[in-house]
Amino acid sequence: MKHQETTDYFLKIVWQTVANRYNQLAAEFGITQSIGYLLINIDDKEGTTVTEVAGLLGLKSTSLSRMLSNLEDMGLIYRESNQGDKRSVKIQLTDLGKEKRHLARVVVRKFNDYLDAHISDGEKQQLIDTLKKINQLTIDYKPE
Scanning 84, 117, 119, 135, which has its CA 20 to 30 A from the CA of 111? Predict the structure, then answer.
């Protein structure tokens, strides 16, 4: 089997294409796709813990430190100690971070509206069901 015929090849190529397109769009607002995704997932009122953000981005907390420092330097976030657990740090958005998050949400909505206009409800549901199945199969996979 050629690598271009494998399921994971298409999953990777499609995600890279989507991420690259998002990066092109996000660059117009001075951010990246990863920054936009992070900003979208920060809770407005409660903030979001570093551990939760690491999970969202698929990073270890230690790997996230540089990115968070950059976001602080850009004026998009600030960190504060979690009142309930002093060992935990919560990430909060600055006003500029909230503005950039709004722009990221607009980009995501427009892109998804575009996809919805070109993919039928049945195709979309089939894709979602298939991706969920692939995800579960991946979790369950144990090489013999």
Answer: 135
Q: Assign residue 47 a region: left if phi > 0, alpha if psi is -120 to 50, beta otherwise?
A: left
CATH number at residue 120: 1.10.10.10
* Number of domains composing the chain: 1
Reduced to 3 states (helix: H, G, I; strand: E, B; else coil), residue 80 is strand
Pair 68, 52: CB distance under 8 Å: no
Sheet strands side by side (includes 48-49): 48-49, 89-93, 77-81
**CA–CA distance, 89 with 83 (Å, rounded to integer):** 9
CB distance 39 to 76 below 8 Å: yes
**Domain that includes residue 34, residue range:** 3-140
Quote the CA–CA distance of 108 and 114 in Å, as a whole number: 10
Convert the pLDDT of each residue in 121-141 to its tens digit.
999 999 999 999 999 999 999
pTM of the model: 0.82
CA distance 95 to 124: 35
Q: Cβ neighbours of residue 133 under 8 Å, at least 6 residues apart?
A: none
